[in-house]
Design brief:
- The protein is an alpha+beta fold.
- The chain is 45% helix and 23% strand.
- Helix 15 (424-432) packs across helix 25 (675-711).
Length: 751
């Protein structure tokens, strides 16, 4: 993939980006954060001629601004809607062909106007192209070539068919080209003799001697290993996650006393944005009019929605559960609180996602000794065949095939168990994890309100009657606490009574007529507003979160609720601490009292409990643990967790987490169950043991054959059989997790 990144000035001090990412031979333009651009001069242009599939525009700026011409050409060539372009700066014209089946002329004109304007506003141009070698390898038919060589070698060898030697040599040379390029890169760029150099020398010697089966088998195994290795790597060319793309595409604004729906990219600071129930807030700003119940869990970790009204601040990515608000837009895109979380995440270090196993490093260190040993044998015996045998008996080929095979099998096995592990590197680090940091809300807890206690203050009324009155009054309300009361009532088989007149006051409570009584259900503030006598609460412990129930002006009872722990949280934490020997930390934006209570329930020590932690602090805690030499896994599900997820060695999220958290994570628990984390750690550690076994399977026979080749001599073909045979055995051994999983599925159930 080729990426071109360009910066657009969205404000005097802030650069946004346009990314043109080329994939499968065609580029796609993604425009990020193109708001607040009215202060820049427009680029004049006009349509000179247009027919179906072709349009020519005149852009005077092309004549006198070569930098602009270059930027416009890059953007047009990178655009998925454009088939081809012909740009003539001297004539100030650009001719564009397109597929009319994909886009209408009207839409294309509008789209091209944006690109022409964007090219005038671009102030930074950065090309992020992949190396030519990597592009060649990506599209190089290595497996097909090596397969063809092996077929020709068998036909011309054991079967005795007249295959021209020049055809064999030419085909082997062509197939060896990627190996030579990697070996050359190792010498020139990395200044070392790599495994590829050893492979290249062995292939060259055996080919020169006319032993075509040996290099053919080597090439086949090397190519298979490289393909499997690439499969274990998470794509590093994904599109940049953008906040605006996760908030929807259209926004209601009020301009010149008229309501209009516009693209989210067109919203500007100072606009009046209207947000209705069930919609996400697209900007940071102040409420000008209205009131709403806002769910801020994904942003702040707060499990209970917050009531906000005129004059209060609201934030992008939060959800309006109830109500309607008019917001003065003060922060847009990356200038919002959520956008800054993304910027923190994008500043995190980027790692190679392939598995860097210790065995591979050892094999690389053995390259020079093997080469010297082969040279010494050649100097003493004057026999190139014996030298080629030594070079063929390297540990690298077997390890390069067996390690990624084991990793790929482990990733497949984990996926079958409902755990998506995105890369070989994540699997490797997961096996080394000695510290797990959990976010609290939505990760260790369920992330929603749940009733934990119902108490009656009136001896004449039971607690079930208090619950019945509350459930009857709050039926069909969408408030999370009302839904929690209804679930609790259903669990206790409470009958819902008829409700006549009722009135719900957003952020306060509800009043209703039930069985001839006027019932109030809501906050303490609501009770006082309705002149309910609250003296019955004197001397009683104040719960952290509760609603009150009153009839005819008298307080009857209280319903306490909280964010309950996940059913599996205690068991998973206990297993991590006792069985896996992992250090466990908890991060939360809650106050210290709430954090300490939850930590005590889970068995997490006070020193490992971090309260009042905002996104920046969460990332800092993870970095500090990492700097102490710990291998850290972070588990979270919200936008506010994304910076910490990005800085962790292994980041873990849930399938139902926020889009940003899920895409940031190295490991996704598809069943939304923390038990998946334990399974993933177990699979990773088993894979590590399997790789150690495979290293032994490869090393022992190769060392034995190497001793024979040095002291007694060994035919290069026999050396290749030993080397490749051990590779195949190790590769099959690496597939055990998948084979065992399939066997388990086919076994009949034991009763």
């Amino acid at each position: 993939m080729v990426q071109v990144k360009v910066g657009l000035p969205s404000s005097a001090s802030q650069l946004s980006q346009v990314t043109a990412a080329q994939k499968n031979g065609k580029a796609h333009l993604v425009e990020l954060n193109t708001h607040s651009r009215t202060h820049l001069p427009k680029v004049p242009h006009s349509v000179v001629h247009a027919i179906t599939g072709r349009i020519r525009l005149q852009v005077p700026r092309l004549c006198y601004d070569p930098d602009y011409a270059q930027r416009l050409q890059i953007l047009l060539e990178a655009d998925a809607l454009v088939t081809s372009i012909r740009l003539k700066p001297a004539a100030a014209s650009v001719a564009i062909t397109y597929n009319p089946k994909k886009v209408s002329e009207f839409k294309l004109r509008h789209h091209l106007s944006h690109l022409i304007q964007a090219a005038g506003e671009l102030v930074v141009l950065k090309s992020a192209t992949l190396r030519t070698t990597e592009q060649t390898e990506k599209f190089w038919p290595g497996v097909q070539l090596s397969g063809a060589i092996t077929t020709l070698a068998v036909l011309g060898g054991p079967l005795g068919l007249p295959i021209p030697s020049m055809l064999m040599v030419g085909t082997i040379t062509l197939a060896t080209l990627p190996i030579f390029q990697r070996a050359w890169k190792g010498i020139i760029v990395e200044r070392k003799l790599s495994i590829d150099f050893l492979d290249f020398i062995a292939i060259a010697i055996t080919t020169f001697q006319g032993q075509f089966i040996t290099p053919a088998l080597m090439l086949s195994l090397i190519e298979i290993g490289e393909k499997i290795r690439d499969r274990t790597a998470r794509s590093s060319a994904q599109q940049t996650l953008d906040l605006l793309s996760s908030l929807g595409q259209l926004v209601w604004v009020e301009r010149d006393d008229e309501k209009q729906q516009i693209s989210i990219q067109e919203v500007q600071c100072g606009d009046t944005v209207i947000v209705y129930p069930g919609e996400q807030v697209p900007v940071d700003g102040t409420i000008l009019q209205g009131k709403a119940l806002l769910d801020e869990q994904k942003l702040t970790g707060e499990s209970v929605p917050i009531f906000k009204t005129k004059g209060q601040q609201v934030f992008a990515s939060t959800l309006v559960r109830e109500g309607r608000i008019y917001i003065l837009a003060e922060g847009i895109g990356n200038d919002t609180k959520a956008g800054k979380n993304l910027q923190l995440m994008q500043q995190a270090p980027v790692h190679d996602t392939r598995m860097g196993n210790d065995a591979v490093k050892i094999a690389e260190k053995a390259v020079l000794p093997t080469l010297l040993l082969g040279g010494a044998v050649l100097a003493i015996t004057r026999n190139p065949a014996r030298a080629a045998s030594i070079l063929s008996l390297d540990f690298a080929t077997g390890i390069r095939v067996s390690v990624p095979t084991a990793v790929l099998a482990a990733l497949t096995h984990a996926a079958q168990r409902g755990v998506l592990i995105r890369s070989g590197r994540a699997l490797e680090l997961l096996a080394q994890v000695d510290t797990v940091v959990f976010d609290k809300t939505g990760t260790l807890t369920q992330g929603e309100a749940a009733v934990v206690r119902v108490e009656s203050f009136n001896p004449a009324i039971s607690s079930m009657r208090v619950l019945q009155l509350a459930a009857t009054a709050e039926q069909r309300l969408t408030h999370p606490v009302a839904e929690a009361v209804m679930r609790y009532a259903e669990t206790h088989n409470v009958e819902i009574l008829p409700r006549s007149k009722w009135d719900y006051q957003l952020g306060l409570g509800v009043q209703a007529e039930i069985d001839g009584e006027l019932v109030f259900v809501g906050s303490k503030r609501f009770m006082r507003h309705k002149n309910v006598d609250m003296s019955g609460l004197e001397g009683k412990q104040k719960p952290a979160s509760a609603i009150y129930v009153a009839t005819n002006g008298e307080l009857q009872g209280i319903i306490e609720y909280c964010d309950l722990l996940r059913p599996e949280s205690r068991e998973v934490i206990h297993r991590l601490l006792t069985v896996e020997g992992v250090e466990v930390h908890m991060l939360t934006g809650d106050n210290k009292r709430t954090a300490s209570t939850v930590a005590a329930q889970l068995g997490i020590t006070p020193t490992n409990t971090h309260a009042e932690a905002f996104p920046e602090q969460k990332a800092t805690v993870v970095r500090e643990l990492h700097e102490q030499g710990k291998t850290v896994a972070f588990v979270g599900d919200g936008i506010n967790d994304s910076p910490a997820l990005a800085y962790a060695d292994v980041s873990v999220s849930f399938a139902n987490g926020s889009d940003i958290a899920r895409e940031t994570a190295d490991l996704v628990l598809m069943k939304n169950d923390l038990h998946g984390l334990l399974e993933a750690i177990a699979i990773a550690r088993q894979t590590k043991q399997l790789i150690q076994q495979n290293t032994g399977i490869v090393a022992v026979p190769n060392l034995a054959a190497l001793a024979i080749a040095v002291f007694f001599g060994l035919n290069p073909l026999a050396a290749t059989v030993v080397n490749n045979g051990s590779t195949v055995v190790a590769g099959v051994n690496g597939l055990r997790p998948v084979l065992k999983s399939r066997k388990t599925k086919t076994l009949p159930a034991v009763r």
